[in-house]
Amino acid sequence: MNKKANVVLRLEDVSYRYKDAKKDEYVFKGLSYAFEEGKVYAIKGKSGSGKTTLLSLISGLEKGYTGKIYYRDKDLSKVKLDKYRNSDIGIVFQSYNLLVHLTAGENILLSMNINGMKEHHKKEYVNSLLEQVGLTKEHAKRRVLKLSGGEQQRVAIARSLSYHPDIILADEPTGNLDKETEDDILKIFKDLAHKENKCVIIVTHSDNVVKASDEVFELKSTKKKD
Amino acid sequence: MYIIKNAFISIFRNKGRNILVGIIIMVIASSCAITLAIRSSADKIVTSYENKYPVTVTIGMNRANLTKSFKENASSQEEMIENFNEIEPLTIEDIETFGDSDYVSKYNYTYSVSLNGKDIEEATDSLVKETTTTKTETETKTETFTNPAPSRGDHMPPFGGDNGGSTETKKSTTQRKTTTTQVENIRNERASKGVFTLQGYNSYEAMSEFISGNYTITDGEVSSDFTSNNCVISEELATLNELKVGDTITLVSPDDERITYDLNITGIYKENTEEASDMRSMFSNSVNTIITNVTTVKDVVSKDEDFNPTVSPTYILKDKDDIEAFEKEVTDKGLSEYYMLSDNIETIENATKSIISVKSFATTFLIITLIIGAVVLLVINMINIRERKYEIGVLRTIGMRKSLVSLQFMFELLVVCIVFLLIGAGIGGLTSVKVSNKLLANEIANAETDMDAINDNFGGKMRDFRPEEMGITQLETIETMDAIVDVKVLGELLLIGAGLTIVGSIASMVSISRFSPLTILKERS
User: Fold this and answer.
1) Cα–Cα distance measured from residue B356 to residue B349, given in angstroms and rounded to the nearest whole number
2) B105 by DSSP, 3-state: which?
3) Could you give the maximum distance between any two Cα atoms of chain A, in Å?
4) What is B400-440 written as a DSSP string?
5) Is residue A185 in some structural domain?
6) What ipTM was reported for this prediction?
7) For residue A110, which residues of chain B lie inside 8 Å, CB to CB?
8) Is position A75 within any domain?
9) Does residue A204 sit within a domain?
10) Interface contact A97-B2, CB threshold 8 A
11) Which of the 8 DSSP states describes residue B202?
12) In the predicted model, is pLDDT for residue A42 greater than 90?
């Protein structure tokens, strides 16, 4: 098996410090790691260790790092990040970050439109995405504020999947959810990795998530699970 | 484009926010519609007035130059009159030469000459009664011769008494009649010799008194035949001489009564000027003015070389900016320094002064409204953008470009702007007529106050006060102004809407370009 061929995201000697920090005060320094397709990764670490910051760098929401981040051998510093965020990666947040004046279906549809997808049967596709995350087409018509936290998170996952990205980045996706819902969401992520060959990277504090992941990337040290 | 659909969804699902913005835009639009409608109407009225009363130039005596020259070169009034008589009068050929100009769209003139009447009595309320006084001196000489009596002395009492002598008395009377006439007539040769003024016009357009309504025909008509011996006479002259349409009058040369001219009466006119109702005069000014055509006057003049006809031209210029160039051209063509050109620009401008004043006020109001409106809209939009920071963050996070986010927000504002601009324009249209006419009424009242003040300055006894010649508005000229929100105004409103949208969107564009999506979402979390 050619392992290099499965690597979708690669960090090479990545260091980051805040703009107003002292010269040698890094959030993290010299990170190197490779993320592969078909796996669920958990990024863990203490508060302030830079988990979310790392996720922001990977998702192209934050710049100002040193070193290199490659998406399929393309240097992230040289790609159009808007396009990258809307075609190559899907982001799921702890607070869902859905547009509250839209329905669940419209949130997903908007993401597809931004991507420029030429799907002929967009409505049916949206319903199929919702079904994939355990919702029905009735949920598509509801405003997101009428949905529960778990349902909103499912909508956020469906939105992130709508344009077929290679990588799913999730920042504490189960932080606001109960145990049962957390398990459901984790199952979705695992299915995405194992059945659809996505690379799922989850920033978490949850042991449950760590257990469910294939690999754990702890900031300052990378531990490979047995 | 999906951003249009997204914008409409956003507008309909955030009604409160958009109605607030809309109300502000509606108020701005109403004010703008009113002011734009006033401006537009004012422009139309001014243009209409300028078209109705085109720029005209007349030639008259340059009395300032005349007086200055006479004062320098003449030592007495007699000499001044002689000098005046030496000035070459304008001829029809001169008028035609001056009229042959690129600056002139057309021209007309009146040709006048004074004549006496035959079997037609002039209307006058002053008679010169000529009384010849002959001074007769009568000298009576009485010579008495007495034959003395022989017995009495030489000295006799004067009365009575008979001294016995004889007395013989001889009376002789001598009458001496002395008539001395010494008349030296030094007169302005252009002054009227006859009692009637025969005034000839070369076209209907030249008959400004009829156009302005100063004269109106009460019977018959002004003949369209400008070559025959037709005339119209005043109502008073007709009554005085029992003349009617169809009659013929005969005029005679004041210098030679053998030279006569027959004119057919085609109409009777009356004078409607303020002067005509002057209670100090028995007759109106025009009572002895017989109106005919230029051809007839030319014919009359050709029969007697002693006539001194006067020509008064009126040139209608193509553009008011041509006045100076036309004046130069006429001077180059040989117009004497004793003549000068006068135009009616001031009269036209004065007549539209109140309208222009309203327009100026409307413009100022428009600018203030737009500035305040734009600032308020900008602030409201900035507040809205702060509220929508989260939305911006989400849109940017899921990969929407900054430019598209800005475009969507701008489109939303544009839609709200257009909808409420149209509502505002409707409200403005309904109120603009009343508001503009109310404003104009105030302007007229102010102008009236100005006129009263000027009257007072002169002691309030200015009977012949002509406001249009003194730089004062002719108030009667334009009294109402119907402001209408028309296509032009709507177009201007839409431009304003576009401007306001751009100004309002500056806030969103700046915010969108400055906001980091991650920071927004972190703040939210």
Assistant:
1) 9
2) strand
3) 54
4) --HHHHHHHHHHHHHHHHHHHHHHHHHHHHHHHHHHHHHHH
5) yes
6) 0.88
7) 2, 6, 398
8) no
9) yes
10) no
11) S
12) yes
* DSSP 8-state class, residue A103: B
Per-residue confidence band for A8, with pLDDT thresholds at 50, 70 and 90: very high
Chain A contact probe: residue of B18, B391, B394 with most A CBs at under 10 A: B394
* Chain A CB within 8 Å of residue B397 CB: yes
The pLDDT value recorded for residue B31 is 86
State how far the Cα of B32 lies from the Cα of B435, in Å rounded to an integer: 13
Q: Which domain holds residue A140?
A: 39-60+81-223
Contact A95 B393 (CB under 8 A): no
- Collapse the DSSP code of B335 into the 3-class scheme (helix H, G, I; strand E, B; otherwise coil) and give the result: coil
Look at residue A35 in the predicted model and tell me its pLDDT: 93
Residue B263: its pLDDT value, please? 93
Residue of A149, A154, A142, A129 whose CA lies nearest to A101: A142
User: B256-287: b or e for each residue (b if 16 or more CB lie within 10 Å)?
Assistant: eeebebebebbbbbbbeeeebeeeeeebbebb
- Residue-level pLDDT at B465: 41
Nearest neighbour of B399 by CB, restricted to A85, A94, A101: A85
Mark the ranges of chain B whose per-residue pLDDT is less than 70.
48, 51-52, 74-75, 126-193, 276, 435-486, 524-525
The CA angle B20-B26-B31, to the nearest 5 degrees, is: 140
pLDDT in tens, B430-481: 887 776 666 666 656 665 665 565 445 444 444 344 444 333 334 344 455 5
Q: Cβ separation of A99 and B394 shorter than 8 Å?
A: yes
Q: Sort out which chain A residues have CB atoms less than 8 A from B10's CB and list them.
A: 101
Q: Which of A51, A62, A82 to probe by mutation at the B interface, max B CB count within 10 Å?
A: A82
Q: Where are the domains of chain B?
A: 2-52+352-458+465-524, 56-123+187-343
- In a domain, residue A131? The reply is yes
| Domain CATH code at residue A155 | 3.40.50.300
Place of tokens 């720029």: B55
Q: How many CB atoms lie within 10 A of CB B94?
A: 20
Q: What are B33-46's pLDDT values in tens digits?
A: 888 877 877 777 77
Domain count within chain A: 1
pLDDT single digits (tens) A64-92: 899 999 999 899 999 998 899 989 999 99
Residue of A nearest to B15 (CA): A101
What is the pLDDT of chain B when averaged over all its residues? 77
Task: Name the closest residue on chain A to residue B518, using Cα atoms.
Answer: A61
For B115-169, what is each residue's pLDDT tens digit?
A: 888 888 888 776 666 566 666 666 555 555 544 444 333 444 444 344 444 445 5
SS3 B497: helix
pLDDT of res. B188 = 55
In this complex, is the C-beta atom of A176 within 8 Å of any C-beta atom belonging to chain B? no
Does A79 contact chain B (CB < 8 Å)? no
Size of interface A-B (CB pairs under 8 A): 59
